[in-house]
Amino acid sequence: MVENLNTLSFAKFGSIRPERPAEARMPQEDSWQIRLLDTAQYQKSLFCSQLPVHLDYASGMTVLAVRLAGAFQLFYLDKPVTIAPGVKFALLPFTEASTVRMAAQVGQWPEAADLPEPLHSLQLTRKLAVSSIFTFFYQEKEQGFFFPGEKHPMLELTYVDSGHIHSVSGGHEMTLAQGEFTIYGSNQWHMQYTDANCVASYITITFELAAGELTPLLNLKGKADQAAAALLRQMLREWKEQKPYAEDMLICLLETLLLTLLRKGLEKPKAALQTANALCSENEVIGHAMQYIGKHLYEKLSVPVVAREAGVSPSYLTALFRKNMQISPGECIRRMKLEESRRLIREGSMNFTQIAQLLQYSTVHHFSRQFKEKFGITPSQYAKSIHP
Prior knowledge:
Elements: E1 2-4, H1 7-10, E2 14-16, E3 32-38, H2 39-42, E4 45-48, E5 53-59, E6 62-67, E7 73-76, E8 81-83, E9 88-93, E10 99-105, E11 111-114, E12 129-141, E13 146-150, E14 155-162, E15 165-169, E16 172-176, E17 180-184, E18 190-193, E19 200-211, E20 222-223, H3 226-241, H4 246-264, H5 276-295, H6 303-310, H7 314-325, H8 329-347, H9 352-358, H10 364-375, H11 379-386
Parallel strand pairs: 1-7
Antiparallel strand pairs: 2-8, 3-10, 4-11, 5-8, 5-10, 6-7, 6-9, 12-19, 13-18, 14-17, 14-19, 15-16, 15-18, 17-20
């Protein structure tokens, strides 16, 4: 980034000359020669002199790049300066053509070599930029909520506001408690559920980046500190109030939140060490199985059938589910069918017998019994609660 020229910041490279009228800003003695340089012609040149050199802007905006060792330091050349002996320097046009007056001792004009690398950091540029927010949901889930899983091109952030949820992604399961969050990658399959005796509220944000990447944060668990929590609360306010430029504010706030997280880092899940290929393979098997179950809820499903479709043995599928999701494949089938039954009841177009038959329950009584075991109320009580 380009800095302002001042006595302290420039001290190790030279000195600031008095800001006098133009004719008195450069030495007038015959022992000095003065040239007018077009910076466009010299922007790839690196100067160095064993004697002091004087510089002053003439027209346009010029960046003075200087270094003794290491990286260049950039200054906006808006006042006359003296470059100390041995300091390497370059003159660059800022945004348009510019000219600079250079004065050196007669016969001692600074040697010019090629710049070893181009200088690009003349302006502040964004390393991370959010281009779009697709969804911003505040979700309140009942006891025993079970989301069968999905994947999509957008990145997704989940933040738990109350209660706790279980998150499965990246080949492992983790519990997100109040104030904790995780980020899922693009096209990464993930699922979420709550315990039978727990309700939860959480925020989900799906978004896309125009610049940068979040690889260091994906599939990890973070605790929102005071600053992060304040950003999330402000995002909620912007979303609810919908004041002018609310969309712009949301994007800016999300960027600030992500940058804060990148600086701080997140907690890696405590799991047995595995290779990336092993984790990816396990995640693919579970994801394939979950997608098959979700697409065939109206068929008679069993663990052997699902395992065959996933290309593994029933025992291996069971081991993977217990390891990564803390439940068996059979329990997963049961939960997904009951979650679908709850959706059908809310829809209100079918009676309980029809729902039981559609979901391949042996009898409506069997369906009612499992529904009550899972949700703590009967299907009719649930129907009355949403359709009083």
